[in-house]
Amino acid sequence: RGYAALLDPESVGMEVAVFIQVTLDKQVGSALKMFEEAIERYPEVMECYLMTGDADYLLRVVARDLKALQRFIVERLTRIPHVANIRSSMTLKQVKYKTALPIDQL
């Protein structure tokens, strides 16, 4: 799809990484579209997946510090219409991270 430089998040001041599960109050097309359009506007959201299971979405978010993360959750995420529940899991250490697809396995 393209080329990108991969930076170490800590080297540019992004000290906090968190996975956030988001549940909407209803899973109808308009609510899903509204949530996805809002998430596209937030640069701290690195990845967003529509999920099966308990949560509707899984986000990977980076932030400068805990105060910045709190601002993101309180001032942005909770204000998106139809967001009913948010569960966060802080990362302690990145054990594995890859960007290359295992195409030699095909």
Write the H/E string, N to C. Answer: EHEEHE
Major sheet, described briefly?
A: 4 strands, antiparallel
- Determine the strand fraction and express it as a percent band: 25-35%
Shape: globular
Q: What is the alpha-carbon Rg in Å? A: 15 Å
Q: How much helicity do the residues have?
A: 10-25%
Low-confidence stretches: none
Number of strands: 4
Number of continuous helical runs = 2
Mean pLDDT, to the nearest integer, reads 94
Adjacency order of strands in the biggest sheet: 2-3-1-4
Structural class: alpha+beta
Distance between the termini: 19 Å
How would you describe this structure to a colleague?
The two termini are 19 Å apart. Strand 2 and strand 3 form a beta hairpin. The protein has a four-stranded antiparallel sheet. The protein contains two helices and four strands. With 106 residues, the protein is an alpha+beta fold.
Short description:
The protein is of the alpha+beta class and 106 residues long.
Give short descriptive properties of this protein.
2 helices; 22% helix; alpha+beta; four-stranded antiparallel beta sheet; 106 residues; globular
